[in-house]
Amino acid sequence: MAKGVYIGVNGKARKVKKMYAGVEDRYTLLDYIQSSGTQYIDTGFIPNQNTKIEMRVQTTQARACGIAATDQNWGSKAFGIWGNAAAYGSETNSNVALYGANPVTVVLDKNKLYQDGSLLWTAGAQTFQCPSSLTLFALNRNGSITEYTAMKLYSCKLYDNGILVRDLKPCRSSGGAVGLYDAVNGAFYGNQDTGNFTAGAETGETVTSPMPRKIKRGYIGIGGVARPFWSGEKALVSYGPITAMSTVRCSHAGGTVGNYALFAGGQDANTSVATVDTYNASLTKGTAPNLNESAWNSAAASVGNYVIFAGGRNDYYQSKVTAYNKSLTKSTPSALSSTKEGLSAAAVGSYALFAGGSRGSGTLKTVDAYNTSLTRSTVTDLSVERQYGAAAGISGYALFSGGRDAGYDDVSSVDAYNASLTRSIAASLSEKKDEHQGATVNGYAIFAGGESSAGLKTVDVFDASLTRKTATPLSVGMSNFASASIEDFAVFAGGFKANGAVNAYSKSLTRTTLTLHSGHANRYALSGARVGGYALFSGGLIDGTELDSVEAFTAL
Length: 556
Fold this sequence. Notes:
Blueprint: E1 6-9, E2 12-15, E3 19-30, E4 33-34, E5 41-42, E6 51-58, E7 66-71, E8 78-82, E9 86-89, E10 91-93, E11 104-109, E12 112-115, E13 118-122, E14 135-136, E15 139-141, E16 144-146, E17 152-160, E18 163-173, E19 178-182, E20 187-190, E21 198-199, E22 202-215, E23 217-222, E24 225-231, E25 236-242, E26 253-257, E27 260-264, E28 267-268, E29 271-272, E30 276-280, E31 285-288, E32 299-303, E33 306-310, E34 321-325, E35 330-331, E36 344-348, E37 351-355, E38 367-371, E39 376-379, E40 390-394, E41 397-401, E42 414-418, E43 423-426, E44 437-441, E45 444-448, E46 459-462, E47 468-470, E48 482-485, E49 489-493, E50 501-506, E51 511-515, E52 523-524, E53 527-531, E54 534-538, E55 541-542, E56 545-546, E57 550-555
Parallel strand pairs: 7-15
Antiparallel strand pairs: 1-2, 3-18, 3-22, 4-17, 4-21, 5-14, 6-11, 6-17, 7-8, 8-9, 9-10, 11-12, 12-13, 15-16, 17-18, 18-19, 19-20, 23-24, 25-57, 26-27, 27-30, 28-29, 30-31, 32-33, 33-34, 34-35, 36-37, 37-38, 38-39, 40-41, 41-42, 42-43, 44-45, 45-46, 46-47, 48-49, 49-50, 50-51, 52-55, 53-54, ...
């Protein structure tokens, strides 16, 4: 296969990185689409006090039936319509009856609810924004999908302060998928859960939408045989939400061993938890034995046949360590050399290293190493104390960057440990930072983001020679966020003021920007881990409320 395709631009050969072909999508319009109670559609729009929704629906469900709804909790940052209720901001009305044998036209226009043109309810004027995007056929509660509804949807329009932003029409795509066509954006919205929508009768109308389609591989005919001549770089895509964890949790740790991603510990409403949720390469959820001690702000690293979770805190700072093998059997290695939370972890050669942190009386620079037999040893200290630093492992080195020193000042220095556990000093980060994240792709260690009033955007990249360069900054400042590394991408997600942003860096360090499925909400204190070809992001907080939802991203 050729290494590249080039085109002439102003007399110069320019390498083609991506190819697209124009393909016209055709949609057959339907009277309605019908859900069975296991389907939903995410509109991608986050309501606020100026939102209006106008829809024609029919359902016989009378309880726990989200027709079009999103909220933080019942009566909190809500906008939605149920079969027997409506909500606007902090007010709710459970004395409506939108269910029955016949279709009804329902309008929630800011704080006024109408049924078939008659005013049913007026809520008080408020100012708010929902934490997650509006879903149809179900309720989106803080990023978790619940209260599914079996119903028929005939039409749906969404307005943002009087401007039409979604005009959703029941349809069948040229490929046979049943869903909604958005006449505003020319986009198709399909089912995002199990089963399929049932199609109503065709209306006799069709619509077309010219769409650019990415060419993943190009072929030419040579001697009557199709030979590949070009392959484009993979793209990171959202797989969407998968089965939620067994409990809400934030400030937890994520790790990988064998065919499993593990999410362990964390906080549930200020109570430390010890439970462990697992996801295999088919994204099936399971559980592993509890940690040896409930803890949050712990760290995880993989070495040999084990993933190790260490340190953290609950009511007290912790030094206990828990390890899981590829069969998810638990073992108890020796404790850390001291109690510590806010530590960082990375692997190099035959060792998993746990470095820095704080034990309450001060920030630490000690480093504990566990080998493939889970035997602990101590190695040369970090060059400076580090709490809330970041770590990443690349070929031949485990790198520890930034963090807060003994004076609780941010630092920019970077320590590197080789496979013999000899420490050296790498080039410093481009700026001082803590609460940033590390990830790896294609032999690069990438350190991104960091804490500031708006979150830091800088991205530093180290190669196997410990040479540093900068990459395209994050699209938005990120702090208290999460990272995960898969073969083709280093992925950074969420953050305190990141509005649900996901930034991914490819093997060529090209940045791609997506959004968490939980929408343009500030989801922070979440955790990331890899399993198979998926980057998983779990839990965290939105507006101070812990989450149990898990989202997957993959490269296609």
